[in-house]
Every structure is written in structure tokens, then in C-alpha cells.
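Hi everyone, sorry if this is the wrong subforum. Our group has a chain we'd like a structural model of before ordering constructs, and none of us has done structure prediction before. Sequence below.
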Amino acid sequence: MGRSATQDIPGAGRALWVSTFGFTACFAVWTIFSIIGVQIGQDLGLSEAQFGLLVGTPILVGSLTRVFLGVWTDQYGGRVVNLGVMLSAAVATWLLSYAQTFPQFLLAGMGVGLAGGSFAVGVAYVSKFFSKERQGTALGIFGAGNIGAAVTKFAAPFVMLAFGWEAVARYWSLALAGIAIVSFLVTVDDPELVRRRTTGEKAEATFLQLSPLKKLQVWRFALYYFFVFGAFVALALWLPRYLVGVYGLDIKTAGMVAAAYSIPASLFRIVGGWLSDRIGARKVMYLTFGVSLVCTFLLSYPPTTYVIDGVHGPIQFRLATNLTTFMVIAFVLGFFMSLGKAAVFKHIPVYYPDYIGSVGGLVGMIGGIGGFILPIAFGVLNDATGIWTSCFMLLFVLVGGAMIWMHLAIRRMEQEREPGLRELPELPEMVSLHNPAPANDLPHGGARGRAHP
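Answer:
Right subforum, don't worry. Here is the predicted structure as C-alpha cells:
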């Protein structure tokens, strides 16, 4: 787009901060079942797998809509698309309060899920106001709207205990509708849309917008996001249930503790965007996957009692993660996942500047699908194994696979760019032992190992 790092696009700051606030409200609605779902599950007597399906349905719908919402944003502008998305989700959330049966809750949850599509709209809209040098930071700030999950965890338990879960749905829907209207009124159209209107240029056709999705690299980025975002959403939905089952907390306390994970996994996305602009998104991804691998391994270890045959008889001890330790590890995991979320989306405007809507929509969709699949998988694993920590076992395998694929892809790209790297021996420091230098290459023309009189 030819903008310099210091060029100020009119309305950029307003677009960023208003979009971030709107996305926070959308995310609060999108994850509403993380709190009210616990009460609904108890009222309906749902199994673990059914509970996972209940909380995951909005995530699935919000994810599946992201590709086309991103494309429509590029074509028609983020303001009008976001207004339609938020108002539709607000209506569905209001109607949720009248649901009584499990199928009715699933149907209402599909409408609630539209709120999750706002992410693709915001990414495509906000990124057009900023240069490549600043897009990482800008999208990191916007993505911090994930903190809406923590807003629901903090506020919804109090509203639910005081007025019932129906009041949560109604209050959240009214807030979302109000924010949607205000956002539309105070923001301006993105500069790309304004330019097309001025010149009379038509937006690129949808099938052309989707053409980059044929590249394997895009799907690799999507796998990264499946973990850093999909697992974040899954845990944001699952942790209250996990904390009630493992540590015996009440729903209000469980919501507060779960927020210790959701807040860093949201706010520090800003730091991730800033770091990606400064040291590069690749380094941030290595940090994210490395630390997440350690954290998920520690959290996946189930409480275990050991008996050792000692010198003076059996010695018994127990290894288990107490609540304080769990909170610390969850905080660290959430922090590094937030860095990774920003780093993934730093790649997209750089590699695909003309297809941010479609590529960002696909990556966001796959990440969101992770938020749908993983809670169901957590419930199935619980039913099948009877081990609460099985959810973290699955995440350990997932992040390990993503890190291996990333490293192999990077190595292949480096070798294609520098063909000489293919010829390097596995242990370069040992080369002189296996391939002695010729005599004329030795100091003073001497021969290796020759005795001198």
C-alpha cells in the first residue's frame, strides 16, 4: 500500500481502539457458555461430551464464518460488515434466554457464535490503516480483545448467582447491540475502500480472494493458530469445569481462577505484536512453542502416588499439582500463547498484503475450529480415560507436532535460499579430522605429522 512507518492514516487510532473494544464485547458473548453452560449442564444433566458440544457450538459457527466475513470486509468494508455481525449475534443471545431443551440451546448457540466472526472483520479492517512496520503491534492490540473471555468469567458468575443465567444472556445481548451501533457511528471506512470508491475500482472477485488458500504455508500458519488460539478458547471454556471437578471450587471462584489464565492470554498479545515487529515473528513462535511444550507436559502429569521399596521398608510419596502451582503454570502458558497469537498474524500482512481478509479469515477459522473441537475432545477423553489432566496431554501432543512442522519448514526454506547449506556436514567442527588439509595448505608448506630433523 506504500505507506511509511510514520505516516498517519486519518482515523487509524479511532478504528483500532473502537474495534478492539467491540471485539472485546464480541468475545465476551462468544464465550458466554463457559459460565452459564455449567449451570445449564447441571439443569439438563449433560454428560462431559454433551457439555463440550454445548460450549463448543458457538465457537464452531464463529470460526466457519470467518473466511467469508474476511472476504466481505475486503469487498464492502469493515464498518458495515461488523455492524451486521454484532447485531445478529445480539439478537441470538437475547433469544438464548428462552431456550429450554438441549437442541434449543445448540440452535441458539449457533446464533451466538456469529460474534466470533468479528475477529476476521477486525483484522482485515484495522490492518489497512497501518504500515507493515506497525501492523504487528496494531493487530496485537486488537487481538487483546480476547480479554472478553475474562470479562465474562469475572462478571457473569455474579450476575448469574443474583438473577439467573437468563439475565446474563439478556444483559450481554443489550451491551453488544449498543456497542455495535456506537462503533459504526464513530469509525470511518478503511483507506482501501475509500480509494476504490474514489477511483470507481471494483473489489476483487471472491474466488480470486480465496486463491492463496491453495498454498500449504497458509495451512501451516493455520495449524499454529489452532494451538495458540484454538487451545486458548478451549481452555477458556473448559477451565471453570476443570477447576470445579479437580479442585472442588464453586463456580464463582472457578471463574476467578480461570481468569488468571484468560487475562495474560489476552492482554499480552499486545507484547507479542510488539516483539514480532522488533525481533521477528519466527523467534516469537519458537519461544511460544518451546515454553508451551514444557507447560503442557507439567500440567498433563496426573496426580500419582508412588511406593518405593526403601532400605527400611516401603517409602510412599505423592506428586500432584496444587491449585497455586496450577495457576502459576496456567499464567505462564497463557502468556506465551498470547505472544504466539500475535506472531501468527504478524506473518499474514507481510506474506499476503492483498489477501488479509481471506488468509486471515482461514487462519482464524482453523484456530476457532480448534476452540470447538478441543472442548469436545476434552470431554471425550475424560469419559474414556477418567483422567482430568488428559486435556493437557492432548495439548502437549498438538504443540509438539506444530513445533516440529514449523522447524522442518524453516529448515527447508533456509536450504532453498542458501543451497550450500545442504552440503554442510552434520558436525562441521569435526570436518578437519576426517578430511585432512592438503600439504600445501598447512603452515610453511609442512606435511601433517612429518618429523623434522
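For your construct planning: The radius of gyration is 26 Å. The first helix runs from residue 12 to 30.
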